[in-house]
Specification:
It is built from 14 helices and 20 strands. The protein is an alpha/beta fold. α1 crosses α4, α5 packs across α6 and α8 runs parallel beside α9.
Length: 453
């Protein structure tokens, strides 16, 4: 079994992400890291404190010193990991029975190579440090500083907000520790919903979707809020709702932020890094603002940033990076941060005359996403067969296979097929004026290949 997926280590705590695994991972991380100082935080899941204790035991018995920051959003832990290593106990938007471990170094998620090194150590086994080399633990407060830094960043770049009311759907997750407070600090008037942390997620499922946000959307419209901001369990994701209670498409938000950062840049070669499932509207908005867009595999934004910096010139600047609902603001930090995104969207909406003034200029074509059940052990073979047969289904399309299978049709409609890195599904994404028909053709191909294996 592979230890790491596209979002760190995740799984059911009863069978996969157990305390025993936590100790072994902690010791493996401590033995592999050049820097022996770690900052550790956890989300509000029922099992998070216990798993954090197990990982702490592994880190200290491997020789690491652990600074415990307690219950924090994942981006706050990433912020705290600057200049040292970080460990976050979270399963993000997964169900409450799951948990996970995410690793950071100097504010950036571990690369695939670093994860591979940890996995090798884990499988080979790591001895406990001799008694005199065990590390110790200390506590540290980070939330207040993190919130203040975001507020100052937004005010410096966009300005103070006036007279804008924002509903904040915390979903019993970690956003309750950060987003309402930051919005108040930049001058907005937040109304917090379900800001009490509860790892059972009684208000709604942790993953914010149009369906799970139904009551939140109604609240935004009924209370005549200027906009709504909703988060997942650890506040790395952000979903935006307009004043009518409609979810703003994730690619539209991506395009708005990407274009704004591009327009603000003084670099000759401003670059936005995004993923294959992002809409062409992102490319259009960035191009109009004077920049270019480069793509990287889903879940690999950090590697994409590193690649473009290495391949670029002195005039190249990575101004923004994002995949749907997950954004990196390089001028603030190198991690995915839903709290910064919430504050930036609020500030931009306040300065431009409302959320509709931001969304109206962005051209939208119908977009769909579908998940097709597929056992994990079949994914690789299914994807290989799809690569070989996709041209039979879309004979007039341009096929790329770097990050899944993406087909671009002559009218610039597109379809993307890729395996989920965290769940037993193959995902299908499409954008087209006839998107439903496009999705059906791809879904039929996937099911046919699954049945033949």
């Amino acid at each position: 079994m592979d230890l790491f997926g596209t979002a760190g280590i995740r799984g059911d705590v009863a069978e996969t992400v157990t305390p025993e695994l936590g100790v072994k991972v902690g010791r493996s991380v401590a033995s592999e890291a050049e820097e022996s100082t770690f900052v550790l935080g956890y989300d509000g899941r029922v099992t998070s404190q216990g798993l954090a204790a197990a990982v702490t035991a592994g880190l200290t018995s491997g020789g690491g010193t652990v600074y415990k920051v307690g219950e924090v959003p994942t981006p706050a832990l990433a912020y705290a990991s600057q200049g040292r290593h970080g460990v976050m106990i979270t399963a993000s938007h997964n169900p409450p029975e799951d948990n996970g471990i995410k690793l950071f170094a100097d504010g950036v998620e571990y690369s695939e190579e670093q994860e591979h090194q940890i996995e090798t150590r884990y499988k080979e086994g790591v001895d406990t440090a001799t008694w005199e080399n065990w590390g110790n633990t200390e506590t540290e407060e980070i939330l207040a500083e993190y919130r203040t830094q975001i507020s100052q960043y937004v005010i410096d770049n966009v300005g103070k907000v006036k007279e804008i009311t924002v509903a904040v759907g915390c979903g019993n997750g970690m956003a309750g520790h950060a987003t309402p407070q930051v919005l108040s600090q930049i001058g907005a008037q937040p109304i917090s919903l379900n800001a009490n942390v509860d790892g059972r997620f009684p208000a709604r499922e942790s993953k914010p979707t149009p369906e799970s946000l139904e009551s939140f959307r109604a609240f935004v419209a009924d209370r005549e809020c200027d906009l709504g901001i909703a988060h997942d369990g650890d506040a790395d994701r952000v979903v935006v709702v307009d004043q009518d209670g409609e979810v703003v498409h994730e690619d539209t938000i991506l395009a708005i932020l990407a274009a704004w950062y591009t327009g603000q840049s003084t670099a000759e070669d401003p670059v936005v890094v995004t993923t294959p499932n992002a809409s062409s509207r992102v490319d259009e908005q960035v191009s109009e603002a004077g920049g270019r867009t480069e793509r990287v595999a889903l879940g690999k934004l950090h590697e994409g940033i590193s690649r473009e910096r290495a391949d670029g010139t002195d005039e190249t600047a990575i101004v923004f990076a994002g995949e749907p609902w997950k954004h990196i603001h390089p001028a603030f930090g190198g991690w995915i941060d839903g709290v910064v995104s919430a504050a930036m969207i609020t500030a931009l909406a306040g300065s431009e005359g409302g959320i509709k003034s931001l969304t109206d200029p962005v051209t939208e074509r119908p977009y769909r996403k579908k998940s097709v059940p597929c056992p994990d052990e079949k994914k690789a073979k299914v994807m290989h067969r799809i690569e070989k047969t996709i041209s039979d289904v879309f004979p007039d399309g341009r096929v790329k296979t770097e990050y899944g299978v993406r087909v671009t049709l002559p009218d610039e409609s597109w379809i993307l097929i890729r395996p989920s890195g965290t769940e037993p599904y193959i995902r299908v994404y499409g954008e087209s004026e006839s998107v439903d028909a496009l999705i059906r053709r791809a879904e039929s191909l996937i099911k046919e290949q699954i049945a033949e294996i």
